[in-house]
Amino acid sequence: MSRSFYIKNTEAPRVMSPNEILSLQPPTFIQYDVHDEEEHFLDVMNSPIDHYGSMLMGEEFVSGRGFEVCYQVELNSYQVRVFTPSTKADWQGAFEFIVNLARYLGVQVVDEEDTTYQADNITYDYLRDIEFGIRCYEGREGQYIFGVNYPMCLNGEMIDRLLSADDKATYFSEMVEAHQYVDAYFAKQRFYESSLDKNEGIIGVYALTEDLPTILPYEYPPFIDITKISLNQEDISQWRISLVTIEGDEDDPNSYKVMGDMDFKTFLERLPEEKIEKLDGHYMIVELSKSDMQDIIYQKSETSSLFGKIKNLFNNN
């Protein structure tokens, strides 16, 4: 669900690039889709935005979900799409963005229901939009939403607290912002095809570095962010994790050594409960020392051994 606003392009057929659009905004406004180390970064940022498609934008360290900006060729208009529900800061940032763009082009703003607003007076009731979106979560479990930094999974308990809040819009905003700006590294998913057997399928891989607070899924199988990669769960034959230690200067890439590689499900089964800090309905923050990693890698399953079976027999009597 979302709400769209349209700003007529009085410069048509010329279409502004992402850099030009962002130059109309305060310097805190950024785009989240293309990273500056990517090979095609400059081409994307300096080409008309309709060459790229929809681009997620927002205010750095403020936005929770951001908003999408694109160009509708058939309407000769820029489109700003705000997700439902979004945070209060998302809406306020989107309105500021729209106002600056509309002022530059000297036009009014029109929403998807053909309601027209003066550029300096967008009166759309965004708090009502937020509350409507929140109420749609009622009775749901494992509801994923996409933030500017990573996905978030609302479980039943989180949804119940949200629905019972007196000020739902504020509660939702604070919850999303706290999630998106937690002081931890979000582990990226890497995908590889087996070099030995093409029929083996695709392998999903995580990495966890010693003493680095890291966001990882605690549910199995891990959620795949379809906004980032075109893969389904059925495409993945196995999930693995590499446990990485630092041998020397942490600023030297050569100091990072893989202590061990293991099946991700096995890793979750061996991970001590006291090391898990649940972040939402799917993700946790975990921080392991080198010693913790050794314990997990070399841990033997007692219950599968003869000694373990005998021990369990006596414990059950």
What does this structure look like?
The chain is of the alpha+beta class and 317 residues long. The chain has 2 domains: 1-181, no CATH class; 185-298, no CATH class. It has helices at residues 18-23, 41-46, 88-105, 126-135, 156-164, 168-180, 264-270, 290-298, 306-315, and strands at residues 2-8, 29-31, 55-59, 67-72, 77-83, 109-111, 116-117, 143-146, 151-154, 185-186, 190-193, 202-209, 214-217, 236-246, 256-263, 277-278, 283-286. A 7-stranded antiparallel β-sheet has the order 2-3-4-5-1-6-7, with helices on one face. A hairpin with a 4-residue loop joins strand 6 (109-111) and strand 7 (116-117). The longest helix is centred in the first third of the chain and has 18 residues, at 88-105. The model is unreliable at 301-317 (pLDDT under 50). InterPro entries: DUF4299.
Question: Beta-sheet strand percentage?
Answer: 25-35%
Shape descriptor reads globular
Radius of gyration: 24 Å
Strand order of the largest sheet: 2-3-4-5-1-6-7
Number of strands: 17
Q: State the domain count.
A: 2
Protein name: DUF4299 domain-containing protein
InterPro entries: DUF4299
Pfam family, one: DUF4299
Organism: Capnocytophaga canis
